[in-house]
Amino acid sequence: MTLNGQTQELQRIIDRQLISTLFQPIVDCQERSVLGYEVLSRGPSDSPLHAAPALFQAGEQCDQVISLERACLGHAWQILQSSPSIFALPVVENDRPLGLLHKWRVMEVFSSTYERSLNQAKPVDSLTARDALVVEHDEPLEGVTQSLLEDDLYYLKQHFIVTRDGRYMGLGSTRSLLRTMTQRRVEQAKHANPLSQLPGNVLIQREAMRRLQKNEAFTCIYFDIDHFKPFNDVMGYGEGDEVILSLARQLCAVFDGDTDWVGHIGGDDFVVYSSKLELQNRCEQVQKLFKLETLSRYPEALRKARSMTAEDRDGKLKRFPLVALSAGIVVAGSRSFGSAADLAATAADAKAKAKKSTSGIHIVRGECVAEGSVPTQVIVFNAGPPL
Asked: Cα–Cα distances in Å, from 233 out to 295, 308, 312, 352?
């Protein structure tokens, strides 16, 4: 196509307002919802300038960029007027988001003849809001929600821009995000442990399956309090509950990374999932915190004796050590376990061995692909004095 022919065709598209605007939905397949729309401006379907790159390249070559942007803005405004469900359009340059064109702003400017005459010749950029929240596609929803709530004390943005490696991917709806987060919190509250309010067994199993299905290596840690029954019998169940709550806080404080997840199986049993594979030091850190906190709960005489007398499960009096914390660590390879039950059984076995070790920590590493198989390598971690 010659430059003269290109110029004539571009002028025809602008004069007759033949711009077509397509709204391509950005769909969250997991949540089965539309997060937003990618807006594409194109020429007529029977025109050589139909494709967006050809259309805007012609605008640059023919020195008609402002006229073309004005035509796109006008058409976008008509769509905004006629579509009550659309509140904003993204403004993108070379796949990089510049900001958002808000419906209320366009309506405000074009609502009167005077304002329209002042602004109709201006490019889209003049009405673009540059303060849009931009987040990467893999940012946790909790973090996005927090950013939106903290961004402006008096105004909650209706949309946010989602990118992948800095390139525009789509629009997210704040309303949909808050609805999703509310549903998640209701679901979590429904299945939370009543004492600690941490995720309970149903959510623990779901998290295990989610990580197994990703086929990526991760760590599962099973924490258990040693000699907890004698502690309850001697110190009382109220003190026992306080010890459990204290441990829950310690676990959440130490395992606070983006990929860390803490759940409460029940009683004095907890589980931690993490994408990090070397967590012995953090387990030791929790052990030390737990030891310091629980020692302060004993009377001075029991602290000095380092033991207490209580009935065993057969009703016979016996001397028991003070409470301590054991951790069974399972480092799961990318294809280690066939099911959450298989993982749980291995973690329970690692925890049982940890309770017999001097360090209170037992580590299992392996690649057991088939369900019910046995890890190929077992490591006992013996470091530090016994608790």
From this structure: 16, 10, 10, 22
Could you tell me which of 235, 237, 226, 191 has the C-alpha nearest to residue 355? 226
Which are the contacts of 301, defined by CB distance < 8 A and separation ≥ 6? none
| Cα–Cα distance, 318 to 324 (Å, whole number) | 17
Domain span including residue 254: 193-380
If asked whether residues 132 and 200 sit together in one domain, one would say no
- Do 199 and 162 lie in one domain? The reply is no
C-beta atoms surrounding 180 within 10 Å: 17
pTM, whole model, 2 decimals?
0.60
What's the pLDDT at 199? 94
Reading phi first (left if > 0) and then psi (alpha if -120 to 50, else beta), residue 32 is in: left
Query: pLDDT tens across 353-379, in order?
Result: 999 999 999 999 865 433 344 333 333
Look up residue 280 and give its two tokens: 């012995």
Kindly state whether residues 175 and 204 are assigned to the same domain: no
153 and 219 housed in the same domain: no
Q: Which amino acid is at 172?
A: G
Domain count, the chain: 2
Mind spelling out the 3-state secondary structure of the chain? CCHHHHHHHHHHHHHCCCCEEEEEEEEECCCCEEEEEEEEEECCCCCCCCCHHHHHHHHHHCCCHHHHHHHHHHHHHHHHHHCCCCCEEEEEECCEEEEEEEHHHHHHHHCCHHHHHHHCCCCHHHHCECCCCEEECCCCHHHHHHHHHHHCCCCCCCEEEEEECCEEEEEEEHHHHHHHHHHHHHHHHHCECCCCCCECHHHHHHHHHHHHHCCCCEEEEEEEEECHHHHHHHHCHHHHHHHHHHHHHHHHHHCCCCCCEEEEEECCEEEEEECCCCCHHHHHHHHHHHHHHHHCCCCHHHHHHCEEEEECCCCCEEEEECCEEEEEEEEECCCCCCCHHHHHHHHHHHHHHHCCCCCCEEEEEECCCCCCCCCCEEEECCCCCCC
In this structure, is residue 184 part of a structural domain? Answer: no
Residues 6+ apart with CB under 8 A from 258: 140
Task: Give the model confidence (pLDDT) of 176-216 as tens digits.
Answer: 888 888 888 888 888 999 999 999 999 999 999 999 998 88
CATH of the domain at 117: 3.10.580.10
